[in-house]
């Protein structure tokens, strides 16, 4: 009897492993459909796979099999040989819709880098081009769109969590689309923000700022935070999803720059995946460390003690940690 129970338990464990290693298939189906534009081609219409194949210049039989798989995964419906979007697909996956998840295209690019994980582990570093400015406009637009999609959902909550008393000037380092800066200046009290980012990024940043009607309150500053100074006179410096792109040494230097940019009593906020000392939790942070391995030259996720050390070394004190509802943590230090 005990042997039977053990056999059942072993079978269930084997099935869990099998489910894990086959899970990539559904992801690839979604990414390919998004990359080809199948959901947008359908829109609110009912079309045959032959019509979609003609519109997208794809193979008719292969397109039919892909769309059948999308039905099996409940991204599409099918009736009388015509396909149509589910309610969720129409809302989130059709270009031009208000809730369109443009950032999924970044997932297509992540697929390419994650496919190099085995060789990255062998060599101990990324084996793809890790420099943002050399990846091309298509990659950059998809990346910023993905970051905006995430940040604009988080930003209003993060803005409510932070203390803006005594804050009039904010520096948003690597601010991308400006989603956090937009939420910060909306806190009122005459707050203005400056977004510091690469020259290649800022034209995209300025479009997002203009769309939000914030050009009079949010400015931009071009530069590379690893080689350029950040300016001075800020009451709050915000680093969201930045330190994981850098090496430990680069982050020590960056935190010193941020501290130098602060006014007296100003605060530095580092918001990122903050790891426990054994680096196995949180789980999403452990996985993200691999994302940085395959996609950057020296990025990683860092522990609470490491981040606190950078801040203390830079002369910051009153260091506190706060958890957000989004799986990332904030570590905040003050310049006295």
Describe the structure.
49% of the residues lie in helices and 18% in strands. With 336 residues, it is α/β, with parallel strands linked by helices. The chain has two domains: 2-101, Arc Repressor Mutant, subunit A (Orthogonal Bundle), CATH 1.10.10.10; 120-334, Vaccinia Virus protein VP39 (Rossmann fold), CATH 3.40.50.150. The strands form three sheets. The protein has a seven-stranded mixed β-sheet, sandwiched between helices. Helix 10 (179-185) links the parallel strand 3 (169-173) and strand 4. Helix 7 crosses helix 9, helix 9 packs parallel to helix 10 (179-185) and helix 12 (248-261) crosses helix 14.
Give a short account of the largest sheet. 7 strands, mixed
Strand order of the largest sheet: 5-4-3-6-7-11-10
User: Fraction of residues in helices?
Assistant: 40-55%
Which blocks of ≥5 consecutive residues have pLDDT under 50?
none
CATH topology of the largest domain: Rossmann fold
Number of DSSP-assigned strands: 11
Task: Estimate what percentage of residues fall within beta strands.
Answer: 15-25%
So how many helices? Answer: 14
Shape: globular
CATH class of the largest domain: Alpha Beta
Q: What is the CATH superfamily classification of the largest domain?
A: Vaccinia Virus protein VP39
Second CATH tier, the architecture of the largest domain: 3-Layer(aba) Sandwich
Count of folded domains: 2
Helix and strand content put the structural class at alpha/beta
Mean pLDDT, all residues? 93
Radius of gyration: 23 Å
Topology order in helix (H) and strand (E) letters: HHHHHEEHHHHEHEHEEHEEHEHEE
The end-to-end distance, rounded to whole angstroms, is 69 Å
